[in-house]
Amino acid sequence: MKSLTVEDLDAWNDSRKRARFINCLSGIKSAILVGTSNAQGVDNLAIFSSIFHLGADPSLMGMIVRPDVSPRHTLQNLIERKTYSLNLLPYDLRAQGHQTSARYPSDESEFETCGFSVERIRDLKVPFVKESQVKWLMELIRIVDIPENNTHMVIGRVVEVFYPEEILRDDGSLDLAATAPCLVTGLDSYHSVGKGIRYEYAKPGKKPQRLE
Amino acid sequence: MKSLTVEDLDAWNDSRKRARFINCLSGIKSAILVGTSNAQGVDNLAIFSSIFHLGADPSLMGMIVRPDVSPRHTLQNLIERKTYSLNLLPYDLRAQGHQTSARYPSDESEFETCGFSVERIRDLKVPFVKESQVKWLMELIRIVDIPENNTHMVIGRVVEVFYPEEILRDDGSLDLAATAPCLVTGLDSYHSVGKGIRYEYAKPGKKPQRLE
């Protein structure tokens, strides 16, 4: 087992190498495409991996937006429009998803440029990704500034969820793995996910029991 | 494609079913074991899936702690001790990891009870999980209260990282998938992860290029 302290990383004298290391550390996460529109109606699509559950009731999710990366358009748009879509990236479309992280100008839509189709749902004011099997509409609640590194935590509320009927189980859970979603490590490594194994609600004094 | 609004979920009249649905939605995430000790020296181990990257310089990570679930001991301990360990759960030990979510009393260590070995590293004041191949020491920076649902975002700083030598690539990234870590959907579904496919830094006007 090797070890590296943060001081060791500083000694690398290569901020990108250091960033790759720390970015990988937080583990393997879902790659989620964030869809927004700007005031001129230009759609924007950006890949995020720092989207997380904040609570079920109210149905809240958090998303970290960094100041120094291209998804800033996402932040501007969602502040203006108060709404955004979250779309699970299909594993088959990992290369296209990665391409949305390039720094496109604000008057160019990553949908067409990177190879995704815009899906308009009723009169909802955000673009969805047609190729995503699981996607949902978010409403901006509040933005928490994190002064330690000038990032922002966007707190949003889940408003409406779109999914294939067969992945909703009777107990309310979703079999996301059945839709072959894409996972990501760090900034550039994309992964498939295995079928899940479920366990019953854990109780002290009882061995873990498989559910299915 | 089916759709459900938050009002539809409310109409289920089953808060657990609703919680399962929303918990699944944020996607598939890494299962991370959080190790702490209390003032009496009793070790605590709890499984989390809401741990995320906040920034590389300084090396910050966030973690959401909910008020109504068992990892509250984790919150008390890390406030008292200002330090905690994060340990990637191996896929082989998914059942044991799930079992740490049971509500054990504060004078019982989940390490022994659930089948993990405590690893003490030098004079560091937190227990690590011996069976975890990738683990790191965190220092508490600050806790952000989220009044919308009484959760807390714990902001911590990565201090020192322990990993198998062979997973560190020359460019600073870590091949986490090579250590067979465990992923989780919702509250109870555990998954393996496929080998990663990497792409070069994305630029406008250039097709995504595979790195390896």
Quantity of strands of chain A, as a count: 14
- Number of contiguous helices of chain A: 5
As an assembly, this protein is homodimer
The value of Rg of chain A in angstroms is 19 Å
Average pLDDT score of chain A: 94
Distance between the termini of chain A: 36 Å
Largest sheet of chain A: 7 strands, antiparallel
Q: Give the overall shape of chain A, derived from the CA principal axes.
A: globular
**Residue windows where pLDDT falls under 50 for at least 5 positions of chain A:** none
Series of secondary-structure elements of chain A, N-terminal to C-terminal: EHHEEEEEHEHHEEEEEEE
Structure report:
Two copies of one chain form a homodimer. The first copy, chain A, has 212 residues and is α+β, with helices and mostly antiparallel strands. The first copy, chain A, has five helices and 14 strands. The first copy, chain A, has helices at residues 6-10, 15-25, 72-81, 94-99, 110-114; strands at 2-5, 28-30, 32-37, 43-48, 51-56, 59-65, 83-88, 118-119, 128-129, 135-146, 151-163, 183-185, 189-191, 197-198. Chain A has a seven-stranded antiparallel sheet, covered by helices on one side. In chain A, a hairpin with a 5-residue loop joins strand 3 and strand 4. The longest helix of chain A is centred in the first third of the chain and has 11 residues, at 15-25. Chain A is globular. The two termini of chain A are 36 Å apart. At the A-B interface, strand 1, helix 2, strand 2, strand 5 and strand 6 of A face strand 1, helix 2, strand 2, strand 5 and strand 6 of B.
